[in-house]
Structures
1.
Amino acid sequence: MLHYRKQFITQISAGRVRFGADARYALADEIAALGCQRALILSTASQSSVAEDIIRLCGAAAAGRFSGAVMHTPVEISERATDYAKKINADILVAVGGGSTIGLSKAIALRTGLPQIVLPVTYAGSEATAILGQTENGIKSTLTSPLVKPEVIIYDINLAATLPLKVAIPSAMNALAHAAEGLYARDNSPLSSLMAVEGLRAFRKALPRVVEDPKDPDARGEALYGAWLCGSVLGQVGMALHHKLCHTLGGSFNLPHAETHSVILPHAIHYNAAAVPEMLTPVSEIFANASPGIALYDFAKKMAAPLALRDLGLQASDLDRAVEIALAKPYWNPRPVERKPLREMLQAAWLGERPGG
Ligand code: NAD
């Protein structure tokens, strides 16, 4: 990975992580350890019964519940939840769910400075970052602030094991995207690359076993371990073409987040492999194909992950506009992002073709 010839700077913020089967039972202790007594529990509407279980685990420290989290963190919902947090005098936020619920928690933390304990059940990785994406008037923007980074992450294998495969598989592809792009990040370090490689390995091993037996606790545990590593990579280094394209497609065409990552990943990695093949060698080795993009495509196909943008509701007529939006704001990428190859790449992703034809 050539790190010894490269200078690097790394700043690792010491977030607290509690990992394991039934780790959620330590929630009341974690709240008390932060000196807090009034927890606001957050979830999506469909996860409100899980939120009720979490309320029971908080015991006397449970002060209220807000089960209105939705994808892309709309500002109006964050403001409503913030008002509620103030009304009940919450002194800590407890989020149970995926990136949408954790996004809501981060948005309230930004507005109030409250500490957060998060219990992730998807593999999206938001829990390990100081990044918040918010949507206002249909436009998604991203900010980075230490205020939004959760103080404690509780990874409970048994809590995450209820995630249906149709959510878990694309979510795993979302996690792989953080690791794969982390390998060639401009600001990567030996540690971020170690985490990326180990995260890729964990999913390569665990995901086929999760698909075969969704209740296998070892496989679920290893996938969650992979999610922590891949999320930590996202929290440490800057991302490039892949994340930019997914942001564009999600924000401007309202495509589902994890599914879009799943489709785009093999194509974006194939595009960049032309410029930095040696940095993507771990992907080739772990997924057993000399071409890292094809390796990821074949893995996604075997896992029955989403492969085509047209299946996610994107129209063929949207592709030109997607290219324009992606080109509008220049951003760093190891290979220059040019109109013609980008358009060809999106066409292949729209059709669900193997990258490179
Ligand atoms: P999500 O949080 O929207 O969850 C997907 C769906 O799965 C939801 O409807 C949820 O209710 C449901 N679900 C969750 N657990 C379930 C369970 N056990 N059983 C049944 N259903 C369950 O999806 P996600 O992919 O985790 O998050 C996507 C959002 O997170 C996007 O808005 C994205 O921008 C954001 N995100 C942010 C970061 C960051 O660092 N800021 C990183 C990754 C993702």
2.
Amino acid sequence: MSGVRIIEKMYIAGEWTDGQAKGTFPVYNPATGEVLAHVPDGGSADAAEAIAAAAEAFPAWSTTTSYERAEILDRAYRLMMERSEELARLMTMEQGKPLTMSRNEVAYGASFFSWYAEEAKRIYGETIPSPRANHRFLSIKHPVGVVAAITPWNYPMSMITRKIAPALAAGCTVVLKPAEQTPLCAAAIFDILHEAGVPAGVVNMVTALDPEPIGKEFMTNPLVKKLTFTGSTEVGKILLRGAADQVKRVSVELGGHAPFIVLPDADPVHAAKGAVLNAFLNSGQACICANRIFVHRDILEPFTATLIQRVSSLKVGNGLEEGVQVGPLVDEAALAKMVAQTEDAVSKGARLVCGGTQLTEGELGKGTFFAPTVLLDVNESMRIYREETFGPIAPVIPFSDEDDVLAMANDTTYGLAAYVYTRDLSLAWRMWEGLEFGIIGINDINPSAAAAPFGGMKESGIGREGGREGIEAYLETKLIGIQL
Ligand code: ADP
């Protein structure tokens, strides 16, 4: 663990603290099963204290100039980039993704600080023509107030910066509860914010093994004005219901079930290479990973040949090792889900052509590794057709008709990401218009950046993160009418 700073504390009112935690909980390396650290097992009292600190800091922070806030965010960006190697190693140890992917995530995470340092300076109001001659309208933007944020383990740094950077840029103060699996990555970001000069109380972090009491405090404490969450649709619904009582502002980025459509004119080899990179991204543990790969029957054979060849040569292992492309799954429950979805599909007629089992040989036996898997002839009777997989399985569904595939792609309660491979512009355009998804990649497996609005339709969420929209989520519009 040389060169990696591990902080085993919460961060409240500008101090590293154990808060009122009665004990600690362990943080594991999913590749080795080793305990990396013990962090405070906080609860609602800590959340309440952090919220009070954030509320106290709000008046002063919200009245700083956007130039002052931008300077701090810019410092956070530079610190994060300077420490990128150390941060990437910590992320690989705590979350499991291969080191090259952790480096990408650190850079992606840092980019939210630089993007929103600039956006802070563009929080414009408007003058609006009034229908009355002796009357004028203006609208101005205000920060919403104290923001409570809950983040997941799969992107343990960028999901935090994607919320905190726009919140701070807008002039809000924040209390974060990171996922219980990855509190060390969160603490590393808070270390940077501290060093960048974020004043005491403006950002706070509470940790706990059981997220529920903190979640409750976030929903019921009247000082919290906005809740922002990234995680499962199930938990998102709990938070939406809880936020309703006080009509708190909410942004939720939830699950996905991305269709990946390969049309008959596409280059099947190129598309299959893209499908592998996309479906096995972060071991399949990303809400934008391909979950249903629809391939036209005319090119099914060359597509699946490349897919199987590429998937079976993926190197699985500890992400710190050179050349590893697929890391472990988050925990035992995730492994069990892979086995169950595979068995269910096979029992209903799917063909298992590679993978399909847990990997237990040698060092792999210490972690939670599942073999990269390809299932052919998947159909709508199977669980994997509808349930989020969140693991390294590529299910292939053949199709013959473009209208059919659009209907099949949309036949899900989710609406986050969708992908289309085609060289036909008008076909691409029709697909793009017809797909009920918030993010669409046309011959593109990575349609995301700090500058671009990320988010889903239907049960995949409410609101967008990143881009101009990302800061709007932390601003209220205040209208002023003036009688002359
Ligand atoms: P996943 O299944 O991917 O872990 P979750 O939605 O369970 O997704 O977790 C995402 C985040 O939500 C984590 O920080 C987790 O601690 C938190 N969380 C889970 N359950 C609750 C809850 N009942 N109230 C508040 N936060 C929760």
